[in-house]
Amino acid sequence: MRFSSIIQSIIKLIKKRKKLSFFGGVFLFIIFISTINSFFSTDTPIYMTAVVKRGDIEDTVLASGLVRPYRLVAVGARVTGRVVAMHVTPGAIVQEGDLLAEIDSTDQENDLKRKKSVLSNSQARLAEQESYLQQAQETLKRQEGMIKEHAISRVNFDDAVVQVKIREAQVAQLQEQVAQARIDVDSAEVNLSYTRVTAPAKGTVLATVVEEGQNINASQSAPTIVILGDLSKMTIKAQISEADILKVRAGQPLYFKVLGNPQRRYEGKLETVEPAPESIRMDESINPGMGTSSALSSSAVYYNALVHVDNEDNFLRTYMTAQMHIILDSAKDVLLVPSDALHDETQEREAWVQVLVGANKVVKKQVVVGINNRVMAEIVSGLDEGDIVIIGSRDGLQA
């Protein structure tokens, strides 16, 4: 019966009985509500479904990390003094040996002059003693001939021998002094060269830490002057969670994207996975007083994984954030269903699904599951392309 005809019948009944009792009116109202409810209600269930179709699938481990230059160098000063000149600014590209900064060299130049003066004096004294030695050797040689002819006494001959030995000892001592003086001069020259801070390798100036006129103290440690990096190749240090670390290993393929350009995908492979988390440095058994075992056990554990990638176009910048996907398994052009369609998946990768046949017929089928990344799952066997699987009911609950 159509809904409109039912309403018309109720209206006619009301017109025939203009004077209805109170209970009669209530009775007609109940009939009206029941009629509407029965018209709109249905016993046919409504399912959330998905079509089995072909596609590609990956099972990945997600990690994030910072992009850093493959070679990052903090160029420091090895002498104390005032910075008299800075020859580079951030962004400058330098070659090995290029001058980066100059430090006041007055003290080093004066020290070099003193060391050279000591060397000259030692060399002069050595030359003098060498001449005395030569003279003593000539005297001894003459007396060797004279003693054979008994022209001199044995005492005079022995004195000549002693004089040669004394002169030889003095020459040897001065030779050592000259050698030490040369070392001191070389050291002074090296210290003077330290006032000219040069690039240890080719790279890009990422930051200048000091300014012209600033005094630096290198008595205990080398203060950083310039931070230099080779941007032609970058390294990503990604953090792998404890829950995923047993799934990853060196050599696995991966891809990553950076927040500045999420459309661009960088391909690579996992170079190394560090065997211990960085928190091991705080272990009290290694560094007493640095940390406690309870503090380490209560914090999240992450393992560092390193990835190297070419950066010839210099698109990647220092300390960009990279979202990394380490590929554990992948397949192309396979049958796929939402993971929510699977029920009771076993370790043997078997499960069952509900297939909708026709308008409301549901058939239970066994399937063999391949890759399952908890979003989509590969179906190795048990379903055909185009099948409709049930993934939930109208109420949002899994069927």
Automatic annotation (TrEMBL):
Keywords: Coiled coil, Membrane, Transmembrane, Transmembrane helix, Transport
Cellular component aspect of the GO annotation: cell envelope; efflux pump complex; extrinsic component of membrane; macrolide transmembrane transporter complex
Transmembrane intervals: 20-40
GO biological process, one term: xenobiotic detoxification by transmembrane export across the plasma membrane
Domain Multidrug resistance protein MdtA-like alpha-helical hairpin span(s) in chain numbering: 120-195
Main location: other
Example of a GO MF term: efflux transmembrane transporter activity
Multidrug resistance protein MdtA-like C-terminal permuted SH3 domain segment(s): 333-392
Residue ranges annotated for the Multidrug resistance protein MdtA-like barrel-sandwich hybrid domain, each copy included: 72-227
Subcellular location: Cell envelope
Matches recorded under Gene3D superfamilies: 2.40.30.170, 2.40.420.20, 2.40.50.100, 6.10.140.1990
Coiled coil regions, renumbered to chain: 119-191
Stored InterPro entries: MacA_alpha-hairpin_sf, MdtA-like_BSH, MdtA-like_C, MdtA-like_HH, RND_pump_MFP
Family: Belongs to the membrane fusion protein (MFP) (TC 8.A.1) family.
PANTHER family per UniProt: MULTIDRUG RESISTANCE PROTEIN MDTA, SLR1207 PROTEIN
The protein, known as: Putative macrolide-specific efflux protein MacA
Lineage: Bacteria, Pseudomonadati, Pseudomonadota, Alphaproteobacteria, Hyphomicrobiales
